[in-house]
């Protein structure tokens, strides 16, 4: 059976979701141009590459949230989101109520 290059891209995303993933990297893996990769990816997954990566990261974050009590920023960093508040949900709510 021939290997689908999009499967290679999906595998890469699932293995490297914690890292910054560039379209250039994925194009190299698939041996497609960036345009062709985006088109083929959307045909197979019914979503864009960016949305797919976000969904993978959010799903992994949900798993981690259910498994432990890490602060949200720790979990966010573990799944590749690097811009976070550093608050627990309770601290964030309390802070925002005090400011408002």
Keywords for this structure?
single chain, 100 residues, mainly alpha, 6 helices, 69% helix, elongated
Model regions low in confidence, pLDDT < 50 over at least 5 residues: none
**Helix content class:** 55-70%
User: Which class do the helix and strand fractions yield?
Assistant: mainly alpha
Sheet-strand content, in percent, reads: under 5%
Bulk shape: elongated
The string of secondary-structure elements, in order, is: HHHHHH
Mean pLDDT: 84
- Termini separation comes to 60 Å
Task: Please report the total strand number as a whole number.
Answer: 0
* Count of separate DSSP helical elements: 6
Give an overview of the whole structure:
- There is one protein chain.
- With 100 residues, this protein is mostly helical.
- 69% of the residues lie in helices and 0% in strands.
- It is built from six helices and no strands.
- The protein has helices at residues 5-16, 23-30, 34-45, 49-67, 72-78, 89-99.
- Helix 1 crosses helix 2 (23-30) and helix 4 crosses helix 5 (72-78).
- It is elongated, with a radius of gyration of 17 Å.
- It starts with a helix and ends with a helix.
- The model has no long low-confidence stretch (mean pLDDT 84).
Give a quick rundown of the structure.
This protein is mostly helical. Helix content is 69%, strand content 0%.
Record the SSE blueprint.
Elements: H1 5-16, H2 23-30, H3 34-45, H4 49-67, H5 72-78, H6 89-99
Helix pairs in contact: 1-2, 4-5
